[in-house]
Amino acid sequence: MKPGNTITIFCFLLVILSAGRLSGQVLPYKNPSLSSEERARDLISRLTLEEKALLMMDESKPVPRLGIKKFSWWSEALHGLANTDSVTVFPEPIGMAASFNDSLVYRIFDAASDEVRAKYHAAQRRGQESRRFLGLSVWTPNVNIFRDPRWGRGQETYGEDPYLTSRMGVAVVKGLQGPANSKYRKLLACAKHYAVHSGPEWSRHELNLNNVSPRDLWETYLPAFKSLVQEADVRQVMCAYQRLDDEPCCGNNRLLQTILRDDWGFKHLVVSDCGAITDFFTSHKVSSDSVHAAAKGVIAGTDVECVWDRYAYGTLPDAVKRGLIPEDKIDKSLLRVLTARFDLGEMDDDSLVPWSKIPASVINNDEHRRLALEMSRESMTLLQNRNRLLPLSVRKRKIAVIGPNADNEPMLWGNYNGKPIRTITILKGIQSKLGDGNVVYDKACDLVENKVMESYFSKTSAGGKTGFKASYWNNRDMKGEVVTTRQIGEPVKLTTAGQHEFASGVRLEAFSAKYETEFQAPETEEIVFKCGATGYFELLVNDSSLVKYNNWRTLPSRVPYKVEKGRKYAIEIRYAQLNNWQANLEFDFGKELDVDFTGLINKLKGIDEVVFVGGLSTLLEGEEMPVSYPGFKGGDRTDIELPEVQRNCLKALKAAGKKVVFVNCSGSPVALVPETQTCDAILQAWYGGESGGLAVADVLFGDYNPSGKLPVTFYKSTSQLAGFEDYSMKGRTYRFMSDPLFSFGHGLSYTTFSIGNAHISKQIIDKGETVTLNLPVKNTGKMNGTEILQVYVRKGNDQGGPLKTLRGFKRVSVAAGKSASETVELPYSAFEFYNEEKLKMEVTPGEYELLYGNSSDDRSLKKIKVSVL
Asked: Which domains does the chain have, with CATH numbers?
């Protein structure tokens, strides 16, 4: 046989093998008629140890010889597909929680999963391999308990109550993963961050929680995770960064084995938070190196490692050689990993997977836009309405819309977000009601800073032209051939969002840039550089580095710098796009001037009603943010009051005799004691998504009657809070404190409701029985509206237990002057609390109180005593 023929036959056999066939026989792992676990076991038997390790990374490498494609475990769908463009952006989860509408939450995440599938398959058909943020594994929902309003990531959660969080989380998972009886999962959802995690952001990599009481653990921090495992069959659980009782959560046998698998029966995979395994030896110091950390993680039950840069799990073969872990332990983890991939159908032909048929036309279609608006409306929570100022009249007259969030698109998107095709800001929403000519707009002030900046950008020069000279490379190292240069003559605001290049010929990914200019100081004074970037950013003046970071979101930086009159300063910015992340760059500089509201008040002469749109934004609160402002640290807050500059603006409006409607946009509770005096009405609008501005306008002008209820307590001041790193629930949330500014469950309507005496199906409840409350509701006002009935349980003589805890809720819509009746069922498990003597959750026979009404405030609740056998 000729050598060429030998090579040809060999290559032919390789092709057959790669297709999973030999002599017409389908290999088991390629056989769709077998179970996912059977296929995974067969595939594992064909892998080398090195290949096994590669498949346990969040960016799982391909194994071409077996036809295994690259697979990315890390995508986000917190409130729509994140980190991509032209998708539907729904309200932030904390706003969704205010709806108390888990059925609508299900519909939203069913829609979001359609968009994820459509985006994924469209990319696959274009020949693009799986990549971060465009895969079928989505790391949501966040079901941590929002125990402290200072936590910057509380906006990602469904509030402070374990039961509400459980109901919302179950709806999210079922919407994302698809029907339980489907052969293939639509997506893989993920319950995070397990467990006992809610800040602070600045210490999460080192924090050790060694004083969490068993009662707090089981009654507060674990119920939502248990519900997602046992009721929703969530396919992934993400372990958190911090230590619990001296063991990192991702290496914690009690959490990952005893509780999760032995007690709850979880059969699916555990993924690490990104960098959590590396933290074992860099932060927690429980491992000596990456090899030990990898072995510890897998032995504890963490199956997939997510990283920012270097994988510890890549050293698993070394861990086996050193005797730190047996290979069969790796196989056990990998079995869960590969079973999940087979469950998605990503290793099968698209013709077998119904979800692959979802067309791209579903993305941000009319139905999804309607869902986004519907949820945004239902999230609107009216906190105060003195003298019934709201709803405002739409008669043709001038109204002022002012404030730093009034015309702010990104604020509405929240965090962990995608970018929508169009966004309706609050200003635009109000203009749609009154017309542009009847709305006077002014930003009025910054979110935080008590200064305004006069830009000096036009006073710069490069190559004899005003502005900066920009040079671009199609690599991240600013090396080799410059692709293009251009002159930038106005403050820098560049983004790759929407597939926009920084400059013609510059890639959307894997590029770098340098921006250079010269500035001659007109005065001896302090100037300020204001900049922000997603990616690598460095600012230099006269070759001296002033600020440098490499970050995965755009963070605002304020850098003061003293200059001398007449002296020239070389200003240089170095930038590089960060792998897998959208590129953004913003820059301006100049001198700051004190805020003076005299001009604003003069501008508003003759206008009686002012809508002030302020609060916070994800530039201030969020995940592990290296940039801090007064009152903010690392993405969290150090106090919970409204920033001073906004308080001062509201005082000036009050002093000028204006009727003020304060629209507070935030992802967390704000202490609004002064604002209850300076403002006539307060609307909590959260981060409302792509249609948030229209939803606000609909509420302000009475086209929609607000029905939202607070999923978190609004405290009076920071002084009411315990230490941020203290995870004891004592004095926290409505369940353990009774003196808030606005209670959990509070929310006003434009109409009034009367809740009558409940009819209860039984007052002596035997083991395993369900009790039903029939609640009569009358709309005693003149406007159709929706009330949210809330049922709480209090255990009699329960020392150290919650004052009350939510166990049921129901939305009921009632026409003006009409009555309705709704039922709320409480299963036997609604009376379950932690038994200190038996060290477990159980229903203890005895006396209980059922409290029902329209908020957690005792003044709005009626009581029924029951006996549980």
From this structure: 1-30 (no CATH), 39-362 (3.20.20.300), 373-449+597-736 (3.40.50.1700), 451-594 (2.60.120.380), 753-868 (2.60.40.10)
